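Posting this for the archive.
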Amino acid sequence: MPILSRVARRHPTQVAARVLFYALLSFGALGILYPMLLVFGQSMSNAYDLRDNALMPHYFFDRNDLALKHVFSLSPQKLHLLASRHRQPGWQSQNMMRATGNYFASRPAAFAAQGLDLAAWPAVAADLDAFKQTLDPGDLMAVDFRVEDYYRPFLKDKYGRAADSLRTAIEHGGALPARLTKNHPDPADQRQLLQDRDRLGIAIMNADLRSDYLNYYSVEVIPAGNYTVPAWRLGEEPKMRMWREFLAALPPQRKLIISSDTYWHDFLHKKYDLVAALNEAWGSDHKGFNELIAPLAPPADPRVRADWEEFAIKRWPRRLLIAPAGYDAPWRAFVRARFTAKFPAGTDAAQILDRFNANADLALADWAALQLPARQPANELLRLYWNEFSASGALPAEEIGLAAPELQFRSFLRQRYGDITDLNTAWQAQYATWDAVPLPLAFYDFGPAHFTPNALRWQFASESFIRILEYILGRGSAAQNTLILCLLSLVAALTVNPLAAYSLSRFSMKQSHKVLIFFLATMAFPAEVAMIPNFLLLRDLNLLNSYAALVLPGMANGYSIFLLKGFFDSLPKELYEAAELDGAGELQIFRMVALPMLTPILAYIGLNTFVLAYSGFLWAFVICPQEEMWTLMVWVYDFQTRNPGNNYIMAATILVSVPPLIVFLFANRVIMRGIIIPSMK
């Protein structure tokens, strides 16, 4: 029978009350739903769009925002590089980049002006990818977006294979290399090292890199080099050599070419600061530095030529400079004077030459055999002298060659296609000469946003989640430790607490109420109060970094015992008497009569125990300082400290909420029975 009759429900007061009631319920639902949607939206964002605080990131429905986000992800730390590649003078900050509202719509026309048709993007992209594979890795940057997700698996694969090879060699009579026995002198430790593939691989890696990393994931990612500094080059230190090897192994899509325009723009910006100053010096009307095209030969305009000569001699990267022939004599004089200056006057000339040969990795019979290298030498001493000589003014600017990526790309295409007609056919273009062919960097960057927008959306939406999962699952034993902890906690909670509550209910003692009060008193103090004494006790028992340390302090719970005792007390005494008449023992009565009656409340206690064990952070962090025993929450905390950002925090919140939600859904029916179970007297 309804509480209100049909007539009463039609009364204006009742109608207004119901409307108000449902409005309040709806408002409350929205109050819960909005934060949840905001968490999802933030988890699928990154540094590009995190400030939007949008329920749904704009790139999901805005192609322009998606294209800009994709370009930004290529090099978020070097925005000036992107501005040069895409000829966008306005990209002076992230906000200014995001304000480019017509970027996606204007690109086809901009590319058409360069003779590039989007229909030919697959062929152009394939040629550019093949070209990247021919370049020195030191002349390429790794795409910033999730570089670490490529670098650390690269190390794990490389040194995992090295560990396998070493173990095979030892099985065939080989010995552990001295570089490993130096760090692992104990024979027992050596035997354990050979049994653990990952540990052996890390040991080999540390020996190679002269490091002391605990695992592959603690290896720091080498930051992008300062490519605009003329003397910069990828060094020969062990970590730098490894980074060079990594760059060579990267997929071409993850490599960025530094164009001549970038060097030219950087030089002009540092010299003039403002484009107005450049326009005054050149008599031009440029809107920004990034719209200028770098001359690859001396310009005809004397005002521009003066800057270009300074750029070619002093600012062009030394590693990309080609010295002209015919300057061996000045080079010999320069090198001989620089090296001889290190020795006291009167030192034997033959002795000086011998020392030079040793330092320069040469075998010169005399100084007359020394020739000027066309490119920057690999030897450290010769590279130093070569850089100084090329910047000294001894080489005329008009004779210096620039190993520009644009020129190298055209040479590559000429060898690949042979005739410009074949290139035009493949690219669907109409270039008259090879010199007209551009280096299509912006065209290359734009392609994924045009052809595979859904793949990009998925990439950006899943980035935070994938990184967290790879971080947690790839380190330690987070999943295993958490699973074992939850199972042990459940077994302990569903054994100790029911037994204690049954004993207090079944066997009345004079002091039973005092025992119960004692259990309840434990609820009056925060868990943090007992943390230090518990830690000291477990330390004295040598139980730190163990499952026992995680489980033992929480085996008995005062609230659970109090709750279960009340339920045991509510059971009819006739049930116990009937079981005793049938010959059941006390344990049988407990297991076969009492417990089945309390399934709902046991499910409730089990769920609480699971949540507390699963979500426990502080106790697990304190009691288990070793990474091998860290639980899921500790690893999530560690990840968030190493990767600050709301997107990671939100994504971690969602991921760690999934297991409790699944458990709750499975236990929902039983829990609801526990909530509405009638009182049994």
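Confidence is low (pLDDT under 50) at residues 677-681. The CA atoms of residues 478 and 632 lie 5 Å apart.
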